[in-house]
């Protein structure tokens, strides 16, 4: 589940970067050419659509990051792990080329930090995430088996004893 979420973050970050690049190209194209009103309207529609897709992708990334944070808070350690991926040379060049937010001297490429813009997404998600330390930190036979957020911590198969109030007074007729 965690690997699937990490893959989703990685793919969504790449999609966000491509959409922002397309948006920039469309804006530059509109500024540097004499366009008719209908062409301008079409470009505005494309820009609005790309902006909405970027916002949706960022929302998905935020959701997955919050899941990762919840897992970390639950005691599971999440750290990056390199996996071989099939990529076209163009995608690999885009994902590994340094951008304006270049790394400082003391920062390794495996550091996970919040960085603005698509360069941050490329650096942050260029490797998959892996949950480690499961053998040491998680006892599968523990008494607690519920969700951290919504389930009854006593487990779903245990019968709940219901207490019903007794009437305070009885009606005598």
UniProtKB/TrEMBL annotation:
Coiled-coil intervals, chain numbering: 40-74
Chain ranges of the Rab effector MyRIP/Melanophilin domain: 8-157
Gene Ontology annotations for the cellular component aspect, listed alphabetically: cortical actin cytoskeleton
A Pfam entry, by short name: Rab_eff_C
Keyword flag Zinc: yes
Region Disordered, residue ranges: 82-124, 140-159
Keyword Metal-binding: yes
InterPro entries xrefs: Intracell_Transport_Effector (IPR051745), Myrip/Melanophilin (IPR006788)
Molecular function as annotated in GO: actin binding; myosin binding; zinc ion binding
Compositionally biased tracts (Low complexity): 97-107
Keywords of the record: Coiled coil, Metal-binding, Zinc, Zinc-finger
Protein name as catalogued: Melanophilin
Organism per entry: Hypotaenidia okinawae
